[in-house]
Recover the amino acids of this structure.
């Protein structure tokens, strides 16, 4: 059998194994394909997709690079690479540059039909979303919809963005349309649940969360639900287990629990309706950063005053059990205090507060 024939036969075997959930077998067939054709873009891309699913994102990125280098016109590798940069590496600006290069076109890159153009707009929209440019994200996902027509995943993302901008009725309509197009979309169902919950349609929201959990429990588990007294007990225990410097800072700070951020807070502070907590108060006295007793996050401070608010239902959604909830409450408090004291995103990441 010629090497080229052997290559495509191995790819067919790999696809069959992958669709059957036999990933080790699929990888073995892809390795055989690369023995027959070492610069096979499809095989490198297939390896990248399997490695990505397995959580080996660095290796997956390398495989997508190899695929795009082997065949610069192989669009799937370019799209996979851009999505990986957005979803796993947080390299949103780099992903945008790659998407723009595809849209601008060149003899060395693939020509885009309307469906592929829509996919690039969708990837750009996600990058803008993670960069907190919600108007830009909404504009781009709507360009994707104009290019491709009524596609469920695009319509669901439009609904997600509208929810983040508190346009609840419009978000509800988009997400219901997305579910009509793709009834098994856990993403659309979960976000519809968020919208219905904010509209005080609690039973309908619960039904949506249950369906999302049944479809995709890894990504959209059913929210944890505690009564308020038990939640406050966990908050109190979490506060008591914070480092001494933070406990002292919070000594006279009012700790409040609310279900969700009020719309006035969302509008004033430009925050997400899924905000976990916020610290509000007069700025503490501060000196040059050092590392001695009496300093918090490298800043000499007086005892804090004001109010720390924790948002119960948002916190419950990101935790699967009470142990996770206690840890998340502590992390949220540290993050909000650090943010209040002027730490930037890099400082928060360095201190493990994100």
């Amino acid at each position: 059998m010629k090497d080229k024939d052997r290559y495509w036969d191995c790819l067919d075997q790999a696809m069959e194994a992958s669709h059957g959930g036999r990933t080790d077998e699929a990888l073995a067939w892809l390795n055989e394909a690369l023995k027959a054709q070492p610069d096979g873009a499809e095989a490198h891309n297939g390896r990248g997709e399997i490695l990505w699913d397995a959580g080996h994102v660095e290796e997956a990125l390398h495989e997508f690079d190899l695929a795009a280098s082997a065949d610069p016109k192989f669009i799937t590798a370019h799209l996979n690479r851009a999505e990986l940069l957005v979803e796993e590496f947080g390299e949103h600006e780099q992903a945008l540059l790659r998407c723009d290069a595809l849209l601008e076109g060149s003899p060395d890159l693939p020509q885009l039909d309307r469906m592929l153009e829509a996919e690039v707009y969708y990837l750009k929209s996600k990058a803008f979303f993670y960069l907190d440019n919600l108007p830009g994200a909404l504009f781009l996902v709507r360009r994707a919809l104009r290019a491709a027509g009524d596609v469920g995943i695009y319509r669901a993302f439009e609904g997600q963005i509208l929810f983040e901008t508190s346009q609840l009725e419009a978000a509800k309509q988009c997400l219901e349309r997305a579910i009509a197009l793709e009834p098994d979309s856990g993403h659309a169902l979960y976000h519809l649940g968020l919208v219905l919950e904010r509209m005080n349609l609690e039973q309908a929201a619960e039904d949506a969360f249950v369906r999302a959990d049944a479809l995709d429990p890894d990504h959209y588990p059913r929210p944890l639900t505690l009564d308020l007294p038990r939640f406050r007990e966990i908050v109190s225990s979490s506060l008591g287990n914070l480092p001494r410097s933070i406990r002292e800072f919070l000594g006279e700070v009012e700790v409040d629990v609310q279900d969700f951020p009020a719309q006035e807070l969302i509008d004033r502070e430009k925050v997400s309706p899924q905000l976990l907590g916020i610290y509000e108060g007069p700025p503490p006295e501060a000196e040059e950063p050092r590392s001695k007793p009496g300093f918090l996050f490298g800043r000499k401070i007086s005892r804090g005053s004001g109010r720390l608010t924790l948002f119960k239902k948002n916190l419950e959604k990101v935790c699967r059990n009470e142990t996770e909830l206690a840890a998340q409450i502590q992390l949220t408090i540290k993050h909000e205090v650090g943010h209040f004291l002027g730490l930037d995103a890099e400082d928060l990441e360095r201190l493990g507060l994100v």
Remarks:
- The mean pLDDT is 90.
